[in-house]
Design brief:
- With about 240 residues, this protein is of the alpha+beta class.
- It contains eight helices and twelve strands.
- The chain is elongated.
- The mean pLDDT is about 90.
Length: about 240
């Protein structure tokens, strides 16, 4: 019998903190149809700094390898780590982020699904798959400046991103399967974690630039998949005084 995984939550996050995830229509349909959160394998993200250590840590790993204290070089270690960690991304805050609407919505007719840290944690508490789950607030750093970063467990480095992404205000669900998948030839490209959407969703917000009929389409999709949650207009859609 599989035991439930204990979720580690960043102590800087509060249960009532609102989280947003910006989605185009195909991704919204996928959430509703599967009733799950999708965690993507970290090496499939476009950011080349994803899963990178700092220069000092790289030197320490390579020095240990050269002294035969470990069996892998830094490049091998980094490759295996990135292939063994899975991530689901959210933006922290109740307010709209126009850059994220455009970046992740991709069209005017898109949505932001919202939840809270407490709802996210509660939804993940039933997870019985392999690996360790955590919810982490992202820190934005200049990797090349060699800052001090947390690296225990090694998957902690995925709570750091380069400063060019600071506008995202990201919170991450991180699934660490590094040790169990090390040098495995059968690594999943992503992991679906089933959740109760009715309990999980706080609201669905439609884009401020959406078509007049789009909100009704979203309501119809919710009805089709048996999900009940408020569908709201973006605050950015209001007319200025």
């Amino acid at each position: 019998m599989k035991t439930k995984s204990k979720i580690q939550v960043d102590d800087r996050l509060k249960g009532g903190n609102v989280l947003r995830r910006y989605l185009d229509v195909p991704r919204l349909v996928n959430v509703l149809k599967t009733g799950s959160l999708y965690l993507c394998r970290s090496d499939l993200f476009p950011d080349k700094f994803e899963g990178s250590f700092t220069p000092r840590l790289r030197e320490a790993i390579n020095a240990s390898y050269q002294k035969n204290k470990i069996k892998y070089s830094y490049d091998k270690f980094k490759k295996e780590l990135r292939e063994g960690v899975y991530i689901n991304c959210w933006s922290l805050g109740v307010n709209d982020n126009m850059a994220l609407w455009q970046l992740f919505g991709k069209t005017n007719d898109c949505v932001a699904i919202t939840t809270t840290v407490a709802k996210l944690k509660a939804s993940l508490n039933g997870f019985t798959g392999s690996g360790e789950l955590s919810i982490r607030k992202v820190d934005y750093i200049r990797h090349w400046k060699d800052p001090e970063i947390e690296a225990n467990p090694y998957s902690s480095i995925f709570r750091y991103k380069t400063v060019g992404y600071e506008f995202e205000r990201e919170v991450r669900v991180i699934l660490d399967r590094f040790e169990s998948t090390f040098e495995s030839n059968t690594k999943d490209q992503g992991v679906f974690i089933p959740i109760d959407l009715g309990a999980f969703l706080r609201s669905i917000v439609v884009s401020p630039e959406c078509s007049p009929w789009f909100k009704d389409v979203v309501k119809d999709l919710l009805k089709k998949y048996g999900v009940s949650c408020p569908v709201r207009n973006s605050s950015m859609a209001k007319n200025p005084i």
